[in-house]
Structures are given as C-alpha cells and as structure tokens.
Design brief:
mainly alpha; 3 helices; about 80 residues
C-alpha cells in the first residue's frame, strides 16, 4: 500500500512569507535574491526528504516563491521604494 503525501500549502504560511519578504526589503537586492534562493532550496530539500513527488515539489516551491514576491512587491510599493 502506498500513500500520497500532500504538504500543507506553503503559499499559505503567511507569517513565514511576511518575514522573508520583510527581510528582503532590508538588504541589498543581490543579497535578497540569494536569501530567497537559499530558502527555496531548503524547502525543496525538505520536501524531497519527506518523499513528496517532484511535480508537487515544483508546484509548492513556485507558489511559495510567488507569494513571497507578491508580498515583497506590496512592501516596496507601500514604502515608495519600488524604484
């Protein structure tokens, strides 16, 4: 018997998304991008260790990245720092 493991949607983890985006606003853009890449890599690795399928990993990581970037954009626009 096999089971399909479905992780809780990472794009709904608002405190974690807000924390990452807020940190990214406070550092230079190249460092912010590196930080985000590292966070996404860790998420991928963790999901692989748990036996999540590759298509689901790609979906989760993509959704999570989109949620972080959307929140980051909102922060930049609200602070007038989108230039």
């Amino acid at each position: 018997m096999t089971a399909v493991v479905l992780p809780f949607r990472f794009a709904r983890r608002l405190p974690q998304i807000r924390k990452t985006a807020l940190y990214m606003v406070t550092v230079p853009s190249n460092h912010a991008e590196g930080h985000l890449r590292e966070q996404l890599r860790r998420l991928e690795d963790g999901l692989r260790r748990k036996g999540i399928s590759e298509p689901l990993i790609r979906s989760e990581v993509g959704s999570y990245e989109s949620a972080i970037r959307a929140h980051l954009w909102r922060l930049l626009v609200s602070q007038g720092g989108a230039a």
